[in-house]
Amino acid sequence: MHAKAEKAQIQINRISSAYWRVTFDNPPLNVMGPQFVREFREIITAVEADEGVKVLVFASAVEGFFLNHSDFNADLKELTSIPQGPTGLEAWPDILVRLTRAPVVSIALIRGRATGNGSELSLACDMSFASREKAILSQWEVGVGLVAGGGPMARLPSLMGRQRALEVLLSSDDIDGELAEAYGYVNRSLPDAELDGFVDNLAGRIASFDKWSIANTKRLVNVGSLPPDVEMAAGWDTCMASISRPAAQSRIKALFEQGFHRPGDAEDHLGSYVGRLGR
User: Fold this and answer.
1) Dist CA 165 CA 154 (whole Å)
2) Which CDD domains match (predicted)?
């Protein structure tokens, strides 16, 4: 057993047989490491096997962070050694593709930072709703010499258009909830005090409907809207190749020296810090 696996990083609350709430709980920063990926894969497998579940809501128990970037203190080999999933993709893109194709409705409730992996999960969900005051979305990878590995290059252009997608990806800057809504990054941004109630009511409403109708409507929408798996695989392969590049290693080291990967200003305002690295 992995030493870090003693405390679960993801919790499932079955509101009903049809409505599950999945909560990320890996304080202090909700980073995504190998244990998180293994737990998430188990959840997706359980969802695929359960005939009753119709709606998944993803949320966070960690203040300030929905789901953050990868765990740069973890052993990369531990992540890359996780077997490929049923799609034939590596572990993280496999999870995202299976979630998008699953015959259930997935909803991201974004309060806090959805940085890198959190943004990729939001894009894989069927719907996403953000706190107007507290949500921050970011594909920060280019700013440290990396390429994102969870498919935002494949997914973002169809949501917001090529030019805005390139702005998000190449600026590596933080996008607040209001701008995310305007760009089509999320369905809506709502006042923080209204976010939980809105998502819970929507999830409960959809969960009351017939699963066959839900699943087949989603299946038919997917036909004309999803990128091919080869694009997801290409993104992951390029991400892995980018990590060992000297330019990336140098920028990541500089970011660590400024407080990256520790609670504090660098993590809270990552877009600002990334933007100053090469200046």
Assistant:
1) 10
2) crotonase-like
The confidence score (pLDDT) of residue 164 equals 98
Half-sphere exposure for 251 (CA within 13 Å, toward CB): 20
Q: Which CATH class is domain 3-192+210-275?
A: alpha beta
Strands 19-24 and 10-14: antiparallel
Supply the DSSP symbol for 230.
Answer: H
Query: Which pLDDT value is given to residue 4?
Result: 46
Q: How far apart are CA 84 and CA 73, in angstroms?
A: 22
Distance CA 131, CA 194 (A): 8
Q: Strand 175-176 vs strand 127-138: parallel, antiparallel, or unpaired?
A: antiparallel
Tokens, residue 275: 């933007």
User: Are 75 and 29 within 8 A, CB to CB?
Assistant: no
pLDDT at 279: 80
Burial bucket for residue 255 (CB in 10 Å: 0-12, 13-18, 19+)? buried
Q: Are 109 and 196 in contact (CB under 8 A)?
A: yes
Mean pLDDT by 10 residues, the chain (279 residues): 69 98 98 98 98 98 98 96 97 98 98 98 98 98 98 97 98 98 98 98 98 98 94 97 97 98 98 93
